[in-house]
Design a protein that fits this description.
The protein is an all-alpha fold. Among the domains are: 95 residues, no CATH class; 73 residues, no CATH class; 101 residues, no CATH class. The protein contains 24 helices and no strands. Helix 18 runs antiparallel to helix 19 and helix 20 packs antiparallel against helix 21.
Length: 497
């Protein structure tokens, strides 16, 4: 195991996780090696980057084995064990935070040991801990509880008694109902992910297994089977509306019906479920904006949704308390498209502080670069772009695209041509970028290069030809920007003549 694997994991740790891992290593229950404690005491002073030259193999080996000659095999074995400890620590932390998982194993052991009173207290605590919002996991756990109650009755009560038999059937019915809820939520979510994926890559989803299973769902029929006082029927209403909206995206009324039933029941849902449905609402709006001749209606609708999500902190869920960097980007760019520059300025100031601490400075520079570019402060935009950490991987393409446009606006054509050369090479070699996006960016860069060459009188083609090529090209990013620059260059050349 390479020592770089160790540091890659440690770089991902929060300050609290570093403290907890220290406690983990100091516990004889988890670790009996004093060398691991010594190693971690030394390396944690280099948190969070772990790039110091004093972290080379020779120095580390001397710290661990001061009396021995360097042996690479010994060090590799040590790192392999420590890597195993790090993964076990992460698994242990996840298990500690997984209440349902703990109860599952606890109830199993209490049943095996015939500790009935403890079992009753545990099942009661389990149910109380679940009352924090409805989602797919809630129903899976309710199914687990009902199954445990049935098994307990079966093992400990005399089935011949009518009341016990009735309770047993009731537990089975509840177990089935909760499992059905879980199934509907999961299959629907998976199906909509397939739809989203198919739209993104322009492939037919019908032959997919998940799509075939989803086609068998009849939520309306299931609703008629449930009792009128069933407290969780609202979740079926939400998912029925969601499926209807996606089955007929051209019918805008179905979007507003789904939105209404969702917001009418939002207080009953978990943070994860709220986050999921907001992603469905915003996704629909984006789809309508992209595919409509008159996108203004849903541009405004999306902007209002974003404001609600931010004001109510609906971006928080059980996985993170931070605003995701991709959500920051989407909201930023939409605010700019809406030309709400004052609002965008306040958004950057407030919400760049709400992203993960490791990303805050970069997202602040990123946001200000986009804002200043769009209000014509190209020099300031370039300053903000240059302050973005080059190791900031999330939006390398955004940064390169915006830098190229800024260079063009400022007339820094030599810098632009050098960037084009390195950017084209970067795009060609990059295998991780979506092929559709790669083609769009390649076309954008090549057309920008043609405009620069035309500006210097090095082009073999006239403006009309370049404009026609861009207009007919279906896979080019920033088409409107390119067309605008052609018109401006054409006007400048006309004045010069």
């Amino acid at each position: 195991m390479e020592y770089t694997d160790i540091f890659n994991i440690l770089r991902s740790f929060s300050g609290r996780e570093m403290i907890l891992f220290t406690e983990y290593l100091n516990s004889p229950y988890f670790n009996k090696s004093s060398k691991k404690i010594k190693f971690f005491s030394y390396v944690k002073q280099f948190y969070p980057l772990f790039t110091d030259e004093r972290l080379n193999r020779d120095v580390i080996y001397k710290k661990l084995y001061p009396e021995k000659k360097y042996n690479d095999s010994t060090l590799r074995n040590f790192f392999s064990e420590l890597h195993h400890d790090l993964l076990n620590f992460l698994a242990t932390e996840n298990f500690i935070n997984d209440k349902a998982g703990k109860y599952k194993y606890l109830l199993h052991e209490l049943t095996n040991k015939n500790l009935n009173e403890e079992w009753g207290n545990a099942i009661e605590r389990f149910e109380e801990d679940l009352e924090s919002g409805t989602d797919y996991n809630y129903f899976l756990n309710k199914h687990l509880i009902s199954g445990n109650k049935f098994n307990y009755n079966y093992l400990n009560e005399k089935i011949s008694r009518g009341k016990v038999l009735e309770e047993g059937i009731n537990h089975i019915d509840n177990s089935t109902l909760f499992l059905l809820y879980h199934y509907i939520l999961e299959v629907t979510t998976n199906y909509l992910n397939v739809i989203s994926y198919s739209r993104q890559f322009n492939i037919a989803p019908e032959n997919n297994f998940t799509s075939k299973v989803a086609s068998l769902l009849d939520i309306q029929k299931i609703l008629t089977l449930t009792s009128t006082n069933e407290r969780n029927k609202f979740i079926l209403e939400i998912y029925r509306a969601l499926l209807k909206m996606n089955s007929k995206p051209e019918n805008e009324n179905l979007y507003f019906e789904y939105k209404k039933v969702f917001y009418n029941n939002i207080e009953k849902l978990s943070k994860d479920e709220i986050s999921l449905h907001h992603s469905r609402l915003t996704g629909y709006c984006i789809l309508k904006i992209q595919n409509s001749e008159f996108p203004e209606k849903f541009s405004k609708e999306l902007f209002e949704l974003y404001k609600t999500i931010l004001e109510k902190e609906y971006y928080k869920d059980n996985k993170t308390k931070y605003l995701l960097h991709e959500d920051f980007r989407n909201i930023l760019l939409h605010g700019i498209r809406m030309k709400e520059y004052g609002w965008v300025d306040e958004f950057i100031k407030t919400y760049s502080k709400k992203v993960h601490p490791n990303d805050r400075e970069n997202m602040n520079q990123y946001g200000n670069a986009y804002l200043n570019y769009n209000i014509g402060n190209y020099g300031k935009a370039l300053k903000f772009l240059k302050r973005i950490n080059p190791n900031f991987l999330y939006y390398k393409f955004d940064v390169k695209n915006l830098t190229l446009m800024v260079y063009f606006e400022l007339g820094y054509y030599e810098e632009a041509l050098y960037l084009i050369k390195t950017y084209l090479e970067f795009l060609r070699k990059n295998r991780l970028i979506n092929p559709h996006r790669k083609k769009r960016y390649l076309s954008f860069v090549k057309f920008t290069e043609k405009l620069i060459h035309y500006r210097f009188g090095n082009s073999k083609h006239d403006f009309g030809y370049i404009r026609m090529r861009i207009a007919k090209h279906n896979k080019v990013a920033f088409k409107s920007w390119l067309m605008e620059k052609i018109s401006l260059l054409e006007a400048d050349f006309g004045r010069a003549v």
